[in-house]
Specification:
Length: 341
């Protein structure tokens, strides 16, 4: 067995810096009232000794855990297969890391997991929560409200359980959808179909509304429900071709859906964009640039959405910042033209 050296203590740091233990504690825990020359001496002693603050003791002083829960209301099979979640988590992680905070990832496989997440948040383990991919019947908003933790949501709220004044970050889903469908109509396409996402999520509902804003009285059978997955896009595209063999344009609710639709169109002998123009939504480069042909799509800055969610939450945790965060931030979208439309 190898012996481990004893961990440096506050007393050792105080002795090295030539200050009191209380002064070291204030500097290490971010307190005020210490003159800058003393702060520098303490920091130098901390570095020389390799002192690491005891997080439990620090939490007693600061009332902070420097940890944030990221709650994704999806099963792990979906989270780890969809690049959208990787991009959003990367943005969140970058912002939390820049502020020396830990990310605690919580996923929900079923109803039992909702209760577990609620208990964890109420248990005082984290300073706040970032929550996204909620569905309209999801109990998480109510559980989070009862837990009393500061929270920022990803996506426009759509629940009706009395939760108000929520802080959220979203993209202009409806406006982006309108731009996509106007582009297809501007190409002279007359049978423009829409493959939706799961309509119990506000992003999918908003994109359907944007499609309807442009198409107006179009045949409702041109709208087929999908689920934001390639398999869902394949199923919906086959259904569309059965209903309307002469469909000449498709606006898919996201890039993964569009990739599935493109696969079915290719198998059925339809040329893209000559016979059927296709537009997606997200501009996830691992998907949009590798489809055949490369996908025209509506770009939302997914990583920036994650960073902004974390930034808003951390800002609300600072002294005197309570209530300073805006209720909702909606980021703009842009149409990125490639070969599919």
């Amino acid at each position: 067995m190898t012996e481990t050296a004893p961990r440096p203590t506050l007393e050792a740091v105080a002795a090295r810096a030539g200050v009191s233990r209380a002064t070291v504690s204030r500097v290490v825990n971010g307190g005020d009232g210490v003159r800058e020359p003393l702060v520098e001496r303490v920091r130098r002693a901390v570095e020389e000794l390799g002192y690491v603050p005891n997080q439990a003791a620090r939490s007693l002083v600061t009332r902070r855990h420097d940890a944030v829960a990221v709650v994704v209301a999806e099963p792990e099979t979906r989270v780890f297969a969809d690049p959208f979640f990787a991009l959003q988590l990367r943005g969140i992680s970058k912002e939390l890391t820049a502020h020396d905070n830990q990310l605690v990832l919580l996923l929900t496989e079923g109803r039992d997991d909702h209760a577990r997440v609620g208990r964890y948040l109420a248990g005082g383990h984290v300073d706040g929560a970032l929550v996204f991919s909620l569905h309209l019947d999801d109990p998480l908003p109510g559980l989070i409200q009862r837990a009393g933790v500061p929270t920022v949501f990803g996506g426009r709220p759509g629940w009706s359980d009395g939760t108000t004044d929520v802080v959220y970050v979203d993209s202009d889903n409806r406006g982006g959808a309108r731009e996509a469908v106007r582009h297809l109509a501007g190409l002279g396409r007359s049978r423009v179909a829409h493959i939706t996402g799961p309509l119990d999520q506000t992003s999918a509902a908003d994109r359907l509304d944007g499609y309807r804003d442009v198409m107006g009285e179009a045949d409702p059978r041109l709208v087929v429900r999908g689920d934001f997955t390639p398999a869902g896009g394949e199923r919906a595209m086959r259904e569309l071709l059965d209903r309307f063999p002469d469909v000449d344009a498709v606006f898919a609710a996201n890039d993964l859906t569009a990739s599935g639709a493109l696969r079915v169109l290719r198998e059925s002998g339809r040329r893209v964009p000559e016979d059927v123009a296709v537009i997606g939504f997200d501009d996830m480069l691992p998907v949009a640039e590798q489809t055949e042909p490369p996908l025209t799509t509506v770009r939302q800055d997914i990583e920036e959405m994650g960073r902004l969610m974390a930034r808003l939450l951390l800002g609300s945790l600072g002294p005197g910042d309570a209530g300073a965060a805006p209720a909702g931030v909606v980021l703009p979208t842009t149409l990125v033209r490639r070969a599919s439309a």
